[in-house]
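Intended use. Records like the one below are meant for learning the mapping from a protein sequence to its folded structure. Do not use them to infer anything beyond what is encoded.
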Amino acid sequence: MTLPLISAHWTFILWGIMFAIVAFSIKMEDTRIGASISGVMIAIATAILLSNLNVIPKSAPAYDIVWTYLLPLAIPLLLLKADLRRIIPETRDMLIAFLFGTLGTVIGALVGVWLLPLGDSSAKLAGIFSATYIGGSMNMAAVADVVKIDPTVLSASVAADNVMGAIYLGLLAIIPAFTLLRRFLPSAIIDAVEQNKDSEHHQTLLSDERPVFDLLHICFSFSLSLIICGVGYAIASSLGIKNYAILFITAIAVLVANLFPGQLKKLQGDFEIGMLLMYLFFVVVGASADIAQMISGAQVIILFTIIIIFFHMSIILLGGKLFKIDLAEIIIASNACAMGPGPAAAMAAGKKWKELITPAIMLGVFGYVVANFIGVSLVNILS
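Structure written out for the chain above:
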């Protein structure tokens, strides 16, 4: 029997399975357990299980489409109603949390280098993992290219980063379910969403109505979002910084949203479609996590990653407590710091913390900017 069962080139069937995972994850949110761990975590965990049981592939052209096209497209769809008059004052606390997360990442890398037998690549590992847990995987690749790390070590590092990143995303998703942590770090945002969810569920039971999707609105939203993505990529390419296209896409989307707030406020279905695309992204994140490769070639690197994540999370939570930052803001700031703007925005959308979507992207892009500098500097200092 050829493994995986679903070939990477069976594109239609693979897309069908990806959407089925999304549907299953959304449906499970209506259950008590699903509501506690969130649809995001269910999507990631289900995809990890299926890919590591060789039911679906760990890489496929369909996944590349999600990364290359659907993730950028989702960002404008989620931002068409972004109101900067509310967002700017609300970003300050998240920036503070982000800085604490950055500090925790660097401290974790230094402690890991001190504790673990990482060999000749210790300084470079500290640099690439600091970069990935301040900006994202793109920064890991960039710093790895600059410092010329051994390809075998880099392969094990990428495997560890993929799996531990997916696990950490899942951990962030279920944090609101920890009662003791909620008492330690209260959250008005989470409380409001939970109360609203109960109210919506009660109304649905009474009326059995679902949101109405207007095809005209959806077509217009897609058209506008695609044009924004195209312009964003064109500007980034013309400046020779194509990898930072998300910065321009975000800026243009926010500009359009604030130039035409009255007209865009009337749109129906744009945010929901953006959430659907983000759920597909989380499925791809989970499917790409190769646990066997990570275990076989990256045991010490796994421990190194765990140490970094431990210090990152500990310090960002303590910093949040010190400055009385909302738990939801801490979670999204940590996500933006450790995973980048896409996953952070996706989690904010999936959790229905709509006011945190734009700050998540802004902080994630800020991480893109500073992560390479911090990673390369750390390599030079430790060398």
